[in-house]
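Hi D.,

Good news: the full-assembly prediction came through. Inputs first.
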Amino acid sequence: MIRGRGGEPLSTGPGDRIRFRRSPVAFPATPPETELRDGWTVVLRYEGEDDHPGPWLVDLSHRRRWDFQDRDIGAQTPMDLPVPERIGAVGVHGPLVINRLNRTQVAIWHLGDGDPPSTPPETGFTETTDGHCMLAFVGPGVPQALEHLTPLDLFDPARATPFLTQGPVLHVPCQIVTFAVDLVVMTFARGYGETFALAALESGAIEGLRPGGEESFRRAFA
Amino acid sequence: MVADAGAKTGGGLADRGSPDPSVGRPDCRRPPSHGRLPEGRLPPGPTCRVDLSQPLEFSFLGRPVTGFAGDTVASALYASGVRIFGRSLKYHRPRGLYSMEGESSNTLMAIDKVPNECAETTELKAGMSVRAQNVRGDPQTDRFAFIDRFDRMMPAGFYYRLFHRPYRLWPLFQNGLRRMAGTGVLDPRRGLEEGIRGEGGIRVEGGIEVEGARMGSDVRAERYLNAEVAIVGGGAAGMSAALAAAERGLRVCLFERRPWLGGHLVWRVRDFEGEPLHRRAEKLAVRLRAAENVKVFTSSPVTGVWGENLVTGFTSGAEGDLFRECHWECRAKTVVVAAGCMERPLVFNHNDRPGVMQVGAVWRLARTYAVLPGGVAIFSVGDDLSLEAAADLADLGVKIRAVADAREAVRQDAALVTALEERGIPVLAGWAASRVMGRKQVKGCELGALKGEASRRFGCDLVVANAGMQPRIGALATVGARLAYCGHTHTYQPVELPGGVFAAGSMTGLRDPRAIEASGRLAGERAVESCGGSAPGPDESLPEPAPGCDIRHGPDIGRGAKAFVDFDEDGTYKNVVESAAQGFDVPELAKRFGGFGLGPGQYRVAGQNLAMIMADLRGDPVETATPTTVRPPLVPPSLATLAGPGHDVHKRTPLHGELAARGAIFRRAGPWLRPRYFSEDTSCRKEIRNVRRNVGILDSSPLGKFRIFGPDALKALQRVYISDMRKAPRGHCKYSAMCNDMGQLVDDGVVIREGENEYYFTTSSGRAGSTVEWFRYHTRYDRWDYNLVNLTDVLGSLNIAGPNARRVLERVTDDEVSNEVLPYLGCRRITVADGVEARCLRLGFVGELSFELHVPSSYCQFVWDLVVEAGADFGIRPFGLEAQYCLRAEKGHVIIGAESEARVTLTDIGMGWLWDCGDTAAKKVGAPALRACEKQPGRMRLVGFRVDEGSGSPRDGAVVVDGAKIVGYVCTTRRSEALGWQYGMAMVREGVAVRGGRTHIRQEETPGRGESCSATVVPTPFYDPGGRRLRA
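Then the structure:
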């Protein structure tokens, strides 16, 4: 459909192209195994991952996410999910995770296997996949690695997992879900993605933090 | 070294602890490789931490020296015969080892070009380069050593009183003093040569590129810890407290400043309840490291304990660690302070000579580092631990001529006295050192009776001295504990602790090892209770604290001109007397006047002695004396450590990489890094010309973008925006602005009605982060039902601007974008490249035909590629913020902050037409203020001006003058290629803002030296005043 001055189609029309999508994060590592999914190039595994016990930093920015808001949110069942009663509570329902952010708002993440659902037509939904960078910290040593990034108490034994924490990581406001001592997933404004990830890798290198592929996350989330 | 006891759960840094009782210790009983003991070394004993089979080469003053693995820099130098480590600050007196704990500045040295590193506590590494500080020439023959003879010319506070008259000479003295003062020199080239972050570059590890810059030896890390119990001190009490809390399931962080646990037990071989004391400590350490929920940090001094029980400190990286120092902060529910004791220095004449050391220093040299501390020694001490040390050192081969104990005989441990006498060492109760002989090294010592005039002289090369023990009160003092003098222990003891803070161990005056451990357990259990847990009540009673020693100074002190109360600033007993005589007779005043405790040692060397001596000089009981305030950092980390790793975490647009590849020069704009220019030409002439004549493309992704929906969305918009938002039709952009309560312009953008009760609006990039809060704040009492979603990062934004913009856009979409379907200020959704949904806004900020495409951020690069490819025939090229700034200024469009400020309202800057002044029901934010100021005389106004040709070339910020009176300032001014003249906008007083009026602008680069030019007030916009181009 790109045409020349005379209206003639140019040699490489966009109809022939892959409408590629770009993650906000590009790790300084070599990915031997990738997969093209809905325009995203998803890294499944990085070189040397099998020889490293962890922890890993995994880019999940391609995973679909939604924001749902309603004044009477407690009475709603967005995507047929029950809304957690308490602010900071998290529900895991198959591949979907629902986080209660505040009085009127939840975030829904598609983290499991299979195709993500399409955005429901209700007004309260806004797809926010492109608005956030989503990173997972996976594997042994995650608590120690995160101690270099945030003063938040993400592993408070008084709170039952999974739970949501909202606060700064590397001074960037984040939504953080602690699933287990070896699995933490966080989202934050997409614009911070690149510099955040590099800073996390630099700080976490002391604890052995390295880029990881999606497979390591899938194993942990399963 | 950070050792996480939670290694079972995959602790990050390797836990260097092991189940073996010789925790954290190399096999020190291994003989040296050549089978002979190196000179200056003792046979390694069971408490030795130096591996004599592993020599480490380093240099001192350029000369090669050999130390061993496990040494500190100081122990290695001392073993190799070095006695003078540096010179004192004021008198340039020779100084040597004193505490082996870094209590004074005596052994601050330049190590690997980093000044003020403490040699006593810095672990020796191969290849280190060590130099003395505050030395002119060699430390042995310092050229400024003569100053020591002129102490009469430098009384207390001399720098406040001398050199100031006549005042014109002060700069001369000031420069001279500055040249002479200071203890080290920071080499500014170091950071450039070695890279402040390390070696730089990229290396590959297992296919992963690791930025070498962050892996270098200069890496500063930071770590944030959370725990129920934080414990300051890893001695017997601290470990017992940690175990008590950990057994109840609490998370515990324990911080120990030494590289190993055990406190003062680790070098003591005395049998206690059937086993040596060091073994008892090792067993506790093994239990502690086996506890799952305890994190143990060694080599980690605490710098302070703050409100809400925040404990801060730093960890020194050991060999193999990926950081040099790591600053940490531990947020705890409770804090147990078991920091132990330190020795109170004994004040006597020439007590600073190399060879005069504290008991712990001598003992640790021998027992920890296998260094022979001296041949013949005299002890002048004031506690039982020192008597134990004397007996032990005698067993190691040090000839001890006598032990003077400032206490009376009844206060001594009779068993220890007997042990000394069995070794042929006379114990002189009620005696103390009065002076030391020798200039660069101890050659003898005179002991005297504290009551009476008896005295004896001894030849020796080592004087081991203290005035008893004093608690390390720093952590308690910084957290706000109230301290008071205890007449039994003769120390300052905590009498009132903040909530959740507990004290334990020898710092409370306990000396018996069992009692110390029990006090730790008790503190741990109290911490459990404080956290809401249950703990058994105290099941054992603690013995009374041991009586202390109250000696102020040695006998026959005379003027005390060389009896040092403070080593760092060369503060002597005589200086204390001088301070008191001049009215500075309380410790806090004397501290400032005489410099006592102002150096790196802070309270530790001078603190208690100063308070006690000052009380004596005033004739008051010592209980009334208040010691000087202890201030953090208790142990100084390097400034680089406090600065942290220095990550620059900022926002980048989805097109950052693309723009960088196209030569963009980036600048920070709020949290964003944005392209300012695309060439070195900061006038951006080519970028501007391309937009005016052809087509340009701008990455405007940081623009704020929001969705607002809900039954009361319109009410919220009506409240926050100054215009009538009911008039926002579908498919059109309604331009409006937000004001604050003072009527000042705070934001502008467009609002688009997208459906029933649903709107999409944009804000300036600087306000995007606070817009949601702004709406919520201004509707907080209304209970309106509306929702806001910040789409700023969800959508990227491309601005295609210029006469050929439509032609380019038509090539990438099949949707109609003609002037009829999409007129100026129109908006419609289009599909780009057969699949990417985009909002297309017809705006004209730069004054040309332009389209703003809002597309999902992940597709931004894809759409950019298409547009650039489609526009290649037209010569499309990116333009940056500076070009946009100039283009919009030619059009007279305002940028908040550039043409607005705190003193002016919306109407002052000529945008009053936006205000729906008839609507009072909406309670528009800022409307009352606008109404009040609307007709107020004398306000400033924003006007356009044209600089008269040939009269000069003012810049932004130049002042508008009327004679000698300033009547305004230039907000923005540029020379326009399109106009052919220099235009600008200025904020001026009302009388000046007359169309056609003449103004004068004065530009001053330096006060008094400037240039003036004249200008004429002209209407805006300067460019395309009819707006034909942007409506094309």
